[in-house]
Structure formats: C-alpha cells, structure tokens
Amino acid sequence: MADIKCIGILTSGGDAPGMNAAIRAVTRSAIFSGFKVKGIYRGYRGIITDEIVEFKTQNVSNIIQMGGTILKTARCKEFMTPEGRQLAYDNLKRHGIDALVVIGGDGSLTGARIFANEFDFPIVGLPGTIDNDLFGTDSTIGYDTALNTIMECIDKIRDTATSHERLFFIEVMGRDAGFLALNGAIAAGAEAAIIPEISTEVDQLAELIQNGFRKSKNSSIVLVAESPVTGGAMALAERVKNEYPGYDVRVSILGHLQRGGSPTAFDRILASRMGAAAVDALMEDQRNVMIGLSNDEIVYVPFFKAIRNEKHVSRELLNTLHRLSI
Ligand code: ADP
To answer: Any catalytic annotation for residue 133?
Structure first.
C-alpha cells in the first residue's frame, strides 16, 4: 500500500442529500483503520484557502440524517488552472494529507482526475449528485431522496390538476440526464416525461399530443427535465398554449427543493457503504476510481469511465411509462 497516513475529505459541486452520511462513513471507517482524517471545507477552494481541520469521530456525530453537507460545498475556478492546483498540492502536503476522498458530481470527479494524474496523488471519488448521471453506478448518492421529493410534490399537484382539469408541466432537475424526470413520472403515475436523451430523436411534444393525449383524461401531468435540449417547462407550455389553445395549461418548477431534505434510508445506506468502500479502496492501493454500486455490489469505476457521460436511460422504462399512461 502507498504510504498513506492521513486522508482528506471534501464535498464539491452541487450538494446532494446523503453527502453527510458519506462524510461520516469515510471519517469513521478511516479512523477505524488507523488513519488520521482531515475535513476540508468548501470543496477545492478550501484546499487553496486553507480551510482544513482534523476530524475525530465526534465531528461526524448526529449528521447521518441531515441534508446538505456539513463541509459546505463550492465551485472553484482557480482549481481549473495549473497554478491553482499547484497551490492546492502544496497545501495538502503542508497538512500532511496523503490521499483524498472527493464527494461530488462529474465536474468534481473531472477535477479529481486531472489533479490525481498531475501530481500522482491518490484520490477516490464518491458519486454525490441528485442527477444520477455518472456511469458505472446504478445510483448516485442523493438521487433516491430527490426522486422521492419529486414524487411527493407531484402527488400534491395532481390534486389541483384533477380538480381543475388542467394540463400541468412540471419541471425537474437533470440538465443532461432524464433519470429524475422519467422515474419521477413512473412513480407518480404521470402521463409523460420529456427528457434530454430523447429530444434529439423526436419532437416529444408533438408525439405526446398525437398519441391521444387530447382525447385521454380530464387532467394530465407531464414531467420536463430542465435542460437546454428540452427547452424547459415554460417554453413547452407556451408552445401548447399557442398550438392547442383548448388546453388549460399550468407550469410548476420544482427548483431547489429537489436538492434538500433528510436523505432516504436508501441514500443513507448507499452513502455509508460507499464511504466505507472508499477507505478500503485506498488501502488496496486503488486510485483514480469512483466507488459505484452495481447489482448491489460495490465496484470501482475508473474516473475516465464514470465521467464519460454515457449512462443511457433504459428503453424499458420509457416503454413502461408509455404503456401505463393510456
Ligand atoms: P459537479 O461536481 O456537481 O458536477 P461542477 O461541475 O460545478 O459540479 O464542478 C465542481 C468543481 O470541480 C468546479 O468548481 C471545479 O473546481 C472542479 N472542476 C470541474 N471541472 C474541472 C476541470 N476540468 N478541471 C479542474 N477542476 C474542475
């Protein structure tokens, strides 16, 4: 094993429920195995600005149920330059940090990959994002909680949609990935999901209307992934209003409430397993890998694969939604 004595841990990019459970798991399992642990505040920025403190087991007490991240998170332009990363490296060395666990989305893991290669520095990543858009893991930390939040919101909106016989476009997060929109639609019994992966293939709105959406029911709910590819819920609603003036159309944008809240049991367990696995991975001399979960087994996914943006939505899910919405 590389001579690792002290592990630094940080959260970076967009926050996600379950990040705290992951911080707790990394900290406790590292201390359990005899490592020193240092918490780095505000992502990569905190390495450069020196916001680093030693973590003991009690630093992570009573946080497993909390949303957000106790380490805070930030975006850091300086880390995207070689000079910034050199400063970061010098500071890690000064603090005696020999390895890092980075919890974040594809941007954060891209930064981790570049840094790890540049300085031959051991880094293990944990997929922390509600979007579920990292390849090599069935689920990312925070995705299940966000999905449940979306489902609960739609259940409430449906009461109004049904009472007023309206067509609702509900915008959910997912810039490049339709997992939240598609599975949210299935879970809430919505009529359709408009997602970035399909927009390039067909005019989803036209298809929706033609496929009997008009004749169907007295209320309808369509989930729309917030993305330049779909155009977002507002733009779609405008189109419907113009092209099909008979509809009573409303828009609801769920926004940041999707990112918050206490993590579900699934996300807490996922984060705990992944956090413990990150320490195992470092002890096994793994580096430049993200921890994933595949068929309920922990797997190591090389960064370059995880961030390649090739996680496809399942045709089976699309088909199921389609069949159940008649
Ligand atoms: P997320 O991890 O949620 O996808 P971002 O894309 O905002 O979030 O990335 C978070 C941070 O990761 C950035 O602010 C930056 O510090 C770092 N990062 C992202 N891309 C790169 C890159 N190409 N090179 C170096 N660092 C990067």
So the answer is: no
